[in-house]
Amino acid sequence: MRMVDLILKKRNGGELNEEEIRFIIEGFTNETIPDYQMSALSMAIYFNGMTEKETAALTMEMVKSGDVIDLSNIQGKKVDKHSTGGVGDKISLIVAPLVASIGIPVAKMSGRGLGHTGGTIDKLESFPGFNVELTEEQFTKQVNDIKMSIIGQTGNLTPADKRLYALRDVTATVDSIPLIASSIMSKKIAAGADSIVLDVKTGSGAFMKSFDDAKALAEEMVAIGKNVGRQTVAVITDMDQPLGFEIGNANEVKEAIEVLSGKDVNDLKTIALTIAGHMAVLGEFYPTFDEAYADLEKRMADGHALEVFRQFVAAQGGDASLVDDLSKLPQAKYETTFVAKQAGYVESIIADEVGVAAMLLGAGRATKDDQLDFAAGITLEKKVGDKVEAGDVIAVLRSNKEDMTSALERMDHAYTIGATEPEARPLVHAVIQ
């Protein structure tokens, strides 16, 4: 078997079989297939796509290229969730304790963030002492004891995917739906989950800006799940403006705790309950989504989920007193306001621009070696549809950097104020299952 023949086959629209895909991924992983040939294959896939069988085979070969986490010692059906990412996305911090509060184990591995703000792991390190590096025994015991743990990615998970993504990043083949879908699903499958709920974002702050692209990606990932024996549900949710009112690491932890304490932040609450509801059905705790949603909403209101979150922080060495005294979270030295220049309605917020502003304040990383400022972030005072007068405070920016000029300029680009009130977008666009 020769790689050049397989590139030619794919270039001409042919379908690669499992044996051929195994040859490609094994050769690429052990470096007998050079980067330039893998780049050529990626471009052929970009233009010609892949069938469901091809994408499923590619996913599983990437899973097999490294470690596969064994969660068999954790009692119960393990349900994982994954978000395609966005601005102000602190959904995992709400969903994990909510699902754990009904006894479904949440054994989650998360990454660090590159871009707007930190990832879930970075956000949790806003708690002094929080440990994201548990041993396998500690991880298993904690999930069995309190039904929840979130740690950094361990072991050598999907090395083929890491190498392939690095190539795609420099060969203009990142936005290939089969390659995106197999990349995401390979990591989730290697992490050991029995079932998976995917939060696929669409809008200005999402990787998939259009609904059609988000739907195509969601359908591809659900098809992979079906083909490899993992129950998978994809929920397409709105990211046309930041989620909630807080962007930043400690900021987002604070808002997640407030929602778990019963605060009605509509978009966060609705999306979190939707994701958690589907997880609860896949975990076989409720027969229907509607029953799951209603009961989980009660658990959010009565403090059950907040108590699990408190136990989780303490179990991983964090200072759980911050859960009850949010003023003890990291605080920035400097604060400035962004104000409306005219009266009208907030017509739109380009979520990506707000995310970049947060990064410039220190909340995110421009490169993987950048240090995060956990206290840096943005509090939105006005969101899409809100009426404003000239001079009204639209957002509050906080940082340990005194000069926030560049972040304010980004906020100016982000907000559009017009004369008419815009129509509200749905928070949940579709469910693919």
UniProtKB/TrEMBL annotation:
GO biological process, one term: pyrimidine nucleoside metabolic process
Listed SUPFAM superfamilies: Nucleoside phosphorylase/phosphoribosyltransferase catalytic domain (SSF52418), Nucleoside phosphorylase/phosphoribosyltransferase N-terminal domain (SSF47648), Pyrimidine nucleoside phosphorylase C-terminal domain (SSF54680)
Highest rank taxon of the organism: Bacteria
Keywords: Glycosyltransferase, Transferase
InterPro entries, sorted: Glycosyl_Trfase_fam3, Glycosyl_Trfase_fam3_N_dom, Glycosyl_Trfase_fam3_N_dom_sf, Nuc_phospho_transferase, PYNP-like_C_sf, PYNP_C, Pyrmidine_PPas_bac/euk, Pyrmidine_PPase_CS
Gene Ontology annotations for the cellular component aspect, listed alphabetically: cytosol
Broad enzyme group: transferase
Pyrimidine nucleoside phosphorylase C-terminal domain segment(s): 345-418
Catalytic activity: uridine + phosphate = alpha-D-ribose 1-phosphate + uracil; 2'-deoxyuridine + phosphate = 2-deoxy-alpha-D-ribose 1-phosphate + uracil; thymidine + phosphate = 2-deoxy-alpha-D-ribose 1-phosphate + thymine
Keyword Cell membrane in annotation: no
GO MF annotations, alphabetized: 1,4-alpha-oligoglucan phosphorylase activity; deoxyuridine phosphorylase activity; thymidine phosphorylase activity; uridine phosphorylase activity
Cofactor(s), names only, from the UniProt record: K(+)
Protein EC: 2.4.2.2
Family: Belongs to the thymidine/pyrimidine-nucleoside phosphorylase family.
Subunit annotation: Homodimer.
NCBIfam families, per the entry: PRK05820.1, PRK06078.1, Y_phosphoryl
Annotated function: Catalyzes phosphorolysis of the pyrimidine nucleosides uridine, thymidine and 2'-deoxyuridine with the formation of the corresponding pyrimidine base and ribose-1-phosphate.
Protein name in the entry: Pyrimidine-nucleoside phosphorylase
Organism placement in taxonomy: Bacteria, Bacillati, Bacillota, Bacilli, Bacillales
